[in-house]
């Protein structure tokens, strides 16, 4: 979909229905639910375009898609919960994970422990797997440079001070042939923005029914804020029920989606804590 337009009789979605199609088709709809997801962000550093440097999500996709690994010795770096499945997944696939480099300071965790209580068993599982595979974990560290001529041969990592700046004299070289790096995700909002939907920070703003401020347009999932699969599913469920009711000309009954609303509330609280914990340096 490259564009959604609002017209007097409803909405028109301009879409290409496959890679062969050159002319877009126009589909008319009374309601549109935008579920465009999010995209990974990476903070740039010297050498970040060298072959061998991939995003954390890219490494995960390679692994899940065809059991392909980005290298034999990999450094996983950046910040955010995605680094954990990437590092443990690579280690389980037989890759030597030279280090998991996370810029967050673990001392910030207790501040968010309550909001993240539901996530702790999952986090403990990852910690056990990191230990089992003997993956060194460097917290409050960051990658400052990737080295190599025509492909990656190593990365320099350094410790961060409380303000998120590199502490001089702490640089050290980690030889590796791949770096999987990611600094979180951002909502994909371009379709919503072309429609004129209001944003709340980086995300599409929605009400309790997942409606945007543009009549006939709903949004759900990571487009409305990064928070994981369970939150995206709950929002999609609520949006679907709201659309079904509104198209029948009735007001939806929020009791019909009460369980999903609880998942959404918990998911948003945990997501806010994770974002605060994993603010990139
Ligand atoms: C590598 C990786 C690992 C993850 N692991 C976990 C995990 O272990 N647990 C967890 O809870 N969450 C995980 N997540 C997050 C989880 O995938 C998301 O929370 C969830 O998929 C969000 O659902 P969504 O429907 O909002 O977006 P998505 O599932 O991303 O779907 C959005 C879709 O919209 C399509 N799209 C975007 N723009 C357009 C357009 N203009 N036209 C047509 N199509 C468009 C995209 O191609 C995509 O297919 C992971 C994410 C990544 C990247």
Write a structural description.
With 281 residues, the protein is of the alpha/beta class. It has a domain at 40-185: 3-Layer(bba) Sandwich (FAD/NAD(P)-binding domain). It is built from 7 helices and 17 strands. The chain has helices spanning 56-66, 83-92, 109-112, 120-132, 190-195, 229-247, 258-277, and strands at 3-7, 10-15, 25-29, 32-34, 38-40, 53-55, 73-78, 96-102, 137-139, 141-147, 154-159, 172-175, 178-182, 185-187, 199-200, 203-204, 217-219. It has a 5-stranded parallel beta sheet. Strands 1-2-3 form a 3-stranded antiparallel beta sheet. A hairpin with a 6-residue loop joins strand 10 (141-147) and strand 11 (154-159). Helix 1 packs across helix 2 (83-92). The longest helix is centred in the last third of the chain and has 20 residues, at 258-277. The chain is globular, with a radius of gyration of 21 Å. Bound molecules: flavin-adenine dinucleotide. The site of flavin-adenine dinucleotide has 17 residues, from helix 1 and helix 6.
């Amino acid at each position: 979909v490259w564009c959604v337009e609002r017209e007097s009789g409803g909405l028109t979605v301009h879409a290409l229905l496959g890679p062969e199609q050159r002319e877009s088709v126009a589909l008319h709809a009374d309601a549109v639910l935008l579920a465009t997801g999010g995209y990974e962000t990476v903070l740039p550093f010297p050498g970040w375009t060298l072959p061998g440097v991939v995003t954390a999500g890219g490494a995960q996709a390679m692994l899940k898609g065809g059991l392909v690994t980005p290298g034999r010795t990999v450094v996983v770096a950046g910040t955010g919960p995605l680094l954990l499945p990437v590092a443990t997944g690579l280690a389980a696939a037989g890759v030597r994970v030279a280090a998991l480099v996370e810029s967050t300071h673990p001392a910030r965790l207790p501040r968010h422990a309550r909001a993240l209580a539901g996530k702790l068993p999952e986090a403990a599982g990852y910690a056990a797997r990191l230990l089992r595979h003997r993956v060194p974990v460097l917290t409050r560290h960051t990658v400052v440079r990737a080295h190599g001529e025509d492909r990656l041969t190593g990365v320099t990592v350094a410790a961060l001070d409380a303000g998120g700046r590199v502490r001089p004299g702490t640089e050290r070289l980690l030889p590796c042939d791949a770096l999987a790096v990611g600094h979180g995700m951002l909502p994909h909002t371009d379709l919503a923005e072309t429609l004129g939907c209001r944003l709340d920070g980086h995300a599409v703003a929605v009400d309790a029914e997942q409606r945007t401020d543009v009549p006939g347009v709903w949004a759900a999932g990571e487009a409305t804020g990064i928070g994981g699969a369970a939150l995206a599913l709950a929002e999609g469920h609520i949006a679907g029920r709201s659309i079904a009711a509104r198209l029948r000309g009735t007001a939806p009954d929020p009791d019909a989606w009460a369980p999903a609303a609880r998942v959404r509330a918990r998911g948003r609280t945990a997501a806010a804590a994770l974002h605060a914990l994993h603010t990139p340096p």
